[in-house]
Design goal:
Largest sheet of chain B: 7 strands, antiparallel
Helix content of chain B: 25-40%
Shape of chain B: globular
Number of strands of chain B: 29
Oligomer: heterodimer
Radius of gyration of chain B: 31 Å
Helix content of chain A: 25-40%
Number of helices of chain A: 9
Strand content of chain B: 25-35%
Strand order of the largest sheet of chain A: 3-2-1-4-6-5
Order of helices and strands of chain A: HHEHEHEHHEEEHEEEEHH
Strand order of the largest sheet of chain B: 7-15-11-12-14-9-8
Distance between the termini of chain B: 88 Å
Number of strands of chain A: 10
Largest sheet of chain A: 6 strands, mixed
Distance between the termini of chain A: 51 Å
Chain lengths: ~300, ~625
């Protein structure tokens, strides 16, 4: 019997879509790690970051991933997220760099008072650029997916940035087969999106299949929330004050996506186990970014932020 | 088992197992907005339940504000991505969409249809299992249909669906559909051996998209989604080909483990299989395979794995592991098809970086055999390829690489070309076959070599390359330098642009492609002179960075000294000793550097000469002292 026939017998089924996506992501990570001088993996603590980190561990096993993790901290994440972040860093044994924009701290940027747009620009976009410049990273992995938002659907897997970190959607490099062009001149960089082709469903299914640890905020439990502009905002610390007429209530809620707590709305849910969350996600009737204030500032707002250097 | 654990298991069992068993199909949609392409994709997303309620709400609002379908949903609005494009009402780039059926997950590459977006379509097609070619039932086979079909066959898509759309506007007529189907099959037969399926449908009304349409009972084939659910996957076909894995990464956590990581692009592998490492040709066998799932009994095409080998052989990034009985070929000269993707044209004689598998090498464009008119498939003579043009050419690499013919294995026969300066991806290539001539001409080792020649002359050979505008003073300065070298007892030669064009290069004109060839030849001559031990002065306008860079890479690191004779255009033009600028300004002389042909100034020359501040003799002295500082003169 020929090698092929034998192997086909052992492997009679087609690869599943999750196996294909997993291998594609690993391929991208290896390629970028091999061709970059100072790669870094953005770590935002959310479920996509958890999946990306899990894939990185697989890609380089038995070696540890050959790059550090970078968290651009806004100081407004949920308390549970900070606890989870530190536990993960200790478990995986990778360097974790935490960067907080010192200018933003000095200005005392407050998403309640300053609005989501200014908060995001100063603490995330400017903070990210500072960190990339400070450590001279020439390639940064991000967990963004093309199914999240219209402008993301057109962004390349390897996305080139000028030395000012700007993205030019009209001048993107063609991407063919699995041949990725990671070349850049000194000072320029690339953003790399290994999860480009994953959907929200894929991410949840993969988390379930691989039993990947995620922040407990994704699971429903009674939490103190306030209804504001139609959204449920969790009161995570004393920096949030209630407006006249608002009342604090304990509701069983969870989050589909995680960001800064004042900008992230919860959904009421009974899904308090991973399996229930996945089942609920597969049956969901609204998209996950519905809970993110940042996308709604103005038409084409994500595209505008990406021009300016946002992930 | 605890109650909680039992509950978890029950939930997990209740969860539809087949959700995990779905396969993945990637397809490309070709057509324009007018053909209803966006509507078709929108309808697929909507019909398969891929849209969320808030997306439908947004769509409903957008349809009222800027839709073109009255009170109905305008599915086209779902798909326009970027703000500028939304304003222009056209899709400019490749956009990717995602949806799933009960058995498959789909990735849709949505590419624009017009000829100026050929590069986008080729990019989207390169990873597609299936191409959906849209045809308007009222208009039939158009130039665009021919172009899309040709491009799909060129890139090797093995399954083509002709979606005969707008059947609602053609009275759902069977005879109309049959006529179009017949016409298409007759046209496409010579294009290749892709399977062709024609489906009559209406994207607007939803006929034959998800389910069979009652309005066309005469059609007994599958709906579009039924077709996509059942068509063969390219990855399964690749799994039956010979084993190939480009090595991306050598995994070496400690001295006990040495693994080779990469994606298996075709075939399969298991422990014990004999493999050949190309291009070195060494053989060994596989010890273990680590797959992402950790199971290591067998791994197949599409999986990213790490493989350990039985023997300690030299394997590095860019090498390819192949089945030893049918390994990939190895060569350094090819006939290829190139799809050009950049505004700067591809020029004969110019060199680019070429990435194939995990290896990047230097490739020089040889003879361009012809280009193809993508609308008529006519073959035309060509000296260069412009944006979106497709042509057949020879290329020569600076080192041998492992490959298969593209038609046989697209994963190992496709490559990209990268510009050395902008780092842009400027072209895509498909290997036809190796040109064997390169294997019959071997380098003859000569005993009296460069070092011996140089020692006899007691000097260090090098190239001093003068670049600058016409009348910048290159030749005057070079001439002074050579006189001084002669006085010092040095052996030198001055290659002057005008003089060389009287002999060796008298067949060349002044178009870009000719200028590239002009420099390629003088570079080779300069190299021979360096081999002969000479201090070689080259005085050529040499307007393009690419070719000067090429000359630099062909010489040893300290053998190439670039002298930028930096004279502003206005000054050079005011000198105009040969009256050439006047002629060029009058339009009597075409392609004149600085007037209607570009000059790309060096970014980091070893020496910069400002002729407005220095006399020729002073300039020569400063060059000589720099040569002394660099150890070329003592």
């Amino acid at each position: 019997m020929s090698n092929h026939a034998e192997a086909r017998q052992l492997h009679t089924r087609s690869l599943t879509h999750l196996e294909r996506l997993e291998s594609e992501s690993i391929h991208i990570m290896r390629e970028v790690a091999a061709e970059s001088e100072r790669p870094v993996m953005m770590y935002s603590i959310g479920k996509d970051s958890s999946v990306m980190l899990h894939l990185a561990q697989k890609a380089f096993h038995p070696s540890p991933p050959p790059f550090p993790l970078l968290h651009v901290d806004t100081t407004w994440k949920f308390q549970e997220m900070y606890a989870f972040r530190d536990a993960v860093a200790a478990r995986v044994g990778m360097d974790l760099i935490v960067h907080i924009n010192p200018d933003g701290l000095a200005m005392n940027i407050d998403p309640f008072a300053d609005g989501s747009s200014r908060h995001t620009d100063v603490m995330k976009t400017q903070g990210l650029k500072q960190a990339l410049d400070k450590y001279q990273f020439d390639a940064a992995f991000g967990g963004a997916r093309r199914d999240e938002e219209k402008s993301r659907a057109k962004e390349r897997i390897i996305s080139f940035r000028t030395s000012q970190h700007r993205w030019d959607p009209k001048n993107q490099r063609p991407e063919l087969w699995q041949l990725y062009n990671t070349r850049k001149s000194k000072g320029e960089s690339i953003r790399v999106f290994p999860l480009s082709n994953w959907t929200e469903r894929d991410v949840w299914q993969y988390i379930q299949l691989e039993q990947i640890p995620i922040v407990s905020l994704y699971l429903a439990k009674p939490r103190p929330v306030v209804r504001r502009d139609g959204a449920l905002i969790m009161v995570d610390d004393e920096r949030m004050s209630l407006a006249r007429g608002e009342t604090l209530q304990m509701l069983k809620v969870r989050f589909r996506t995680l960001g800064c707590y004042p900008l992230t709305s919860a959904i009421e849910s009974d899904a308090d186990t991973l399996d229930l969350v996945v089942a609920e996600t597969l049956a969901a009737r609204s998209s996950e970014r519905e809970g993110r204030a940042i996308d709604k500032d103005s038409a084409g707002s994500m595209e505008k932020k990406k021009h300016e250097g946002y992930f | 088992m605890t109650i909680a654990a039992t509950k978890a298991v029950e939930q997990r069992d209740a969860y539809p197992e087949k959700e995990y068993q779905k396969s993945l199909l990637r397809f490309l949609t070709c057509g324009s907005v007018d053909d209803g392409k966006s509507t078709l994709i929108g309808r697929l997303l909507y019909g398969s339940g891929a849209l969320f309620q808030d997306q439908i709400d947004t769509l409903t609002a957008d349809s009222k504000n800027s839709g073109t379908q009255g009170d109905n949903l305008d599915f086209a609005l779902l798909l326009d991505g970027l703000t500028a494009e939304r304003e222009q009402g056209i899709t400019i780039d490749v956009a990717y969409r995602y949806f799933s059926s009960a058995v498959r997950q789909f990735i849709v590459a949505d590419t624009p249809g017009h000829e100026q977006y050929t590069r986008n379509m080729i990019s989207g097609a390169s990873t597609a299992d299936v191409a959906i070619i849209l045809m308007d039932a009222r208009k039939g086979l158009l130039t665009q249909t021919r172009r899309h079909s040709y491009l799909a066959s060129l890139i090797g898509i093995r399954h083509v669906v002709v979606a005969v759309n707008k059947m609602d506007l053609a009275d759902y007529s069977e005879s109309r559909f049959r006529k179009l189907e017949q016409e298409y099959r007759a046209f496409a037969a010579p294009l290749g051996d892709a399977t062709i399926s024609c489906i009559p449908l209406s994207a607007l009304e939803g006929d034959n998209i998800i389910e069979a349409s009652e309005r066309m009972p005469w059609y007994d084939g599958p709906s579009l989604l039924q077709y996509l659910d059942s068509v063969d996957l390219e990855i399964d076909r690749l799994a039956d080909q010979s084993f190939r894995m480009p090595v991306q990464w050598v995994n070496r956590p400690d001295s006990d483990f040495r693994g080779y990581s990469g994606m298996i692009v075709s075939g399969s592998a298991k422990p014990g299989d004999q493999v050949r490492i190309q291009p070195s040709g060494r053989t060994t066998h596989i010890s273990t395979i680590i797959t992402p799932g950790e199971k290591n009994d067998v791994a197949v095409a599409g999986q990213s794995v790490t493989i350990t080998l039985a023997d300690e052989v030299d394997v590095s990034r860019g090498d390819m592991l192949c089945t030893s009985d049918l390994p990939a070929e190895v060569a350094d000269k090819f006939e290829v098809t190139i799809i050009w993707m950049n505004e700067q044209p591809m020029l004969r004689g110019r060199s680019y970086l070429l990435k194939i598998g995990a290896r990047t090498v230097t490739a020089t464009i040889g003879q361009i055999k012809h280009k193809v008119n993508v609308n008529t498939l006519e073959e035309l003579a060509a000296k260069q390829l412009d944006l979106n043009e497709i042509g057949v050419t020879d290329i020569v690499l600076d080192q041998p690489v492992a490959f298969d013919a593209y038609q046989k294995n697209p994963q190992v026969g496709g490559f990209i070309l990268i510009d050395r300066f902008t780092n842009n991806t400027v072209g895509a290539g498909l290997i036809h076959f190796a040109l064997r001539r390169s294997q019959n001409i071997h380098w003859q080792a000569i005993d009296v070599n460069k070092q011996a020649q140089a020692e006899q002359k007691q000097q260090k050979p090098c190239v001093v390359w003068f670049t600058g505008l016409s009348a910048s003073g290159k030749s005057t300065v070079a001439n002074c330098v050579q006189q001084r070298l002669y006085e010092m007892g040095r052996h030198s030669y001055l290659l002057d642009g005008d003089n060389v064009r009287h002999g060796l290069n008298k067949d060349l004109g002044f178009k870009d492609a000719d200028r590239v060839e002009n420099i390629r030849r003088v570079t080779e001559v300069a190299r021979l002179m360096v081999d002969a031990g000479l201090i070689t002065l080259v005085s050529f306008i040499s307007p393009f960075r690419s070719e000067r860079q090429m000359a630099r890479t062909l010489l040893e690191e300290d053998e190439f000294i670039e002298v930028f004779v930096d004279t502003p255009l206005a000054v050079a033009e005011s000198r105009d000793p040969k009256g050439l600028y006047r002629k060029a300004r009058r339009g009597d002389l075409l392609n004149f550097t600085g007037i209607d042909s570009p000059y790309e100034a060096p970014e980091n020359p070893e020496i910069r000469i400002d002729t407005t501040a220095l006399s020729a003799v002073e300039a020569a002295e400063s060059i000589l002292s720099e040569l002394t500082r660099r150890g070329i003169l003592d």
